[in-house]
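Running this now, will post back.
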Amino acid sequence: MKTLQSCSALLLAALGSSVFLGLPQTALGAAPYTILATTQIPAAGRIDYVTADSLNRRVYVACGNAVSVFDLDTFKLAGTLANASGHGVAIDPEDHTGLVSGNPATFFNTKNLEAIKTIPARGADGYIFDAPTHHFFILSHGAPNLLVIDSKDGSIVGKVEAMGPDGANAAVEQGASDGEGHLYFDVANAHHIAVVDAKTLKVTGHLDLGEKGNGPAGLAIDTKNRILFAMCRGGRGGTPTCVILSAVDGKIITTLPLAGSSDGATFNPRTMEAFSSHGNGTLSVIKENTPTEFVLEETVQTKAGAKTCTLDTTTDRVIVITREAANATPGAAPATVPAAGEGRRGGRGGPQILDVMFIGR
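Update: finished.
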């Protein structure tokens, strides 16, 4: 395939190749976010999360019974980890290990994409990697709410059984680390954020998200200013909302509306922007002007079902994923679905393709 010569070029490619879309400029000279490239490959099975390893230039997508690995620079498929099903992949970029969050979880070598061992992980769903402790955390809606695994050898080093504010099990969605020993986790069924000590693996507190913090599912952190962005679904009939609060004392700074029901969030410390991805085919961009001033900067159109996201910290690109019918037209305008269809994973009832979308300026 020919090399992209300018951001205004448009290349349409067959299934399994990359589709590049033009990059418009605003009158003020600052480009809005748009889909720069879309890589499509055949898909067999459900998808959930996407994870970027910016250091080693890879992005991981668990799809059905395998993990597809893409190159962050060429956007092409770089390899496949077979016989490893789960919701997504946690990566230790320094030790070159990964963990597929499923039951069983698959601990593998990221260099050769070979499985090392499997680990029982009841109720496995989301995950995070905490760099200071070199621990993978598998998140669950049941007991244990957290399963903690050493990223060097794949051994189980601990569990956190109950993370609800009343000491009960909780629906734990997304987590974030401040890199200084504090871990934060969305408790979707209690409208709280649970705080966990990364070393002792004890719950040390709960941060109440208030009346607008219904159903938190995406969580991002500005580690410099110790600010959390809780992306809340809003519940039945409610309004999707970003609750912005202090990670130190839980004080709510402000709230902002989201363009859809969130299932993923990330924060870019270089641009000071938080991102929330939604199943209705939108991506909300929230700008942190100061630690007390925040604005909804932009709403990016993606594709229906693109409800989770990750960040390439080297290029400042946000990556989202979805599935659609294999007969969808490559390079077609981004599709959206009504609010009632949010969260669908797309393309049911026939051959499927996996869309990996790279969003940037």
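Residues 1-29, 331-347 have pLDDT under 50 and may be disordered. More later if anyone needs it.
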